[in-house]
Design brief:
AcTrfase_PglD-like, 2 domains, 31% strand, 216 residues, eight-stranded mixed beta sheet, UDP N-Acetylglucosamine Acyltransferase, domain 1, alpha/beta
Length: 216
């Protein structure tokens, strides 16, 4: 069986993810790994070919697998549908120095970058992204297509709903077992925000303490 492995997204984040993918398949040759990006296809990036999605699918390899290195969760979900329709395997990628402790459940297609820490009694949905130096503490529940930028601090007893985006260096205050702090569906927590109370669905919060960014 011949393998063909793609990183979907030839961006800065994609460049960081490719070495993690290579670690997962140490016996494969470099030419068996490619970036997939319709906008940049035809060139090379860090020594790897950049292909259109069609060219990737049309490759003659008997087994194809992809990880999606795109922070936009809506785009990520659309690409998952596309990959499912074409029977492409979703890769779960985890850096070698990721720390995962007891009773941690993670859905398919997760991407855990270096120095990520998931402690205990955590449930995480599908296609979760945790960028470098992020952590999730005890008794958290995280939905599908949630994205953590670098250095997110998600303390204990926090519920984060689908498609939420947590910006670089944000800190989310610990909730309690009877009253978890909730980040609503599709909410955006800005870079460096300090979240001390629940955030409604679909809003953006910024600052310390975090407050809703009003649209002008």
């Amino acid at each position: 069986m011949t393998e063909f492995i793609g990183v979907y997204g030839a961006s800065g984040f994609g460049k960081e993810v490719m070495p993690l993918v290579r670690q997962k398949f140490p016996t494969l040759q470099k030419e068996q790994f490619v970036f997939i990006d319709d906008g940049q296809a035809g060139g090379r990036l860090n020594g790897y070919s950049v292909l259109t999605y069609t060219d990737f699918i049309n490759n003659t390899a008997t087994h194809k697998a992809v990880t999606i290195a795109i922070a936009n969760s809506i785009v990520r979900e659309k690409l998952v549908v596309r990959l499912n329709e074409d029977g492409v395997q979703h890769l779960a990628i985890q850096a070698d120095n990721t720390m995962v402790l007891d009773e941690v459940e993670i859905g398919e297609g997760s991407l855990l970058c270096p120095f990520t820490c998931l402690t205990s009694n955590i449930k995480i949905g599908k296609f979760f992204h945790a960028n470098i130096y992020s952590y999730v503490a005890h008794d958290c529940v995280i939905g599908d297509y949630v994205t953590f930028a670098p250095g997110v601090k998600c303390n204990g007893n926090i519920h984060i709903e689908d498609h939420a985006y947590i910006g670089t260096g944000a800190v989310i205050k610990q909730g309690t077992p009877d009253k978890p702090l909730v980040i609503g569906k599709g909410a955006v927590v800005g870079m460096g925000a300090v979240v001390t109370k629940s955030v409604p669905a679909g809003v953006t919060v910024i600052g310390n303490p975090a407050r809703i960014l009003e649209k002008k």
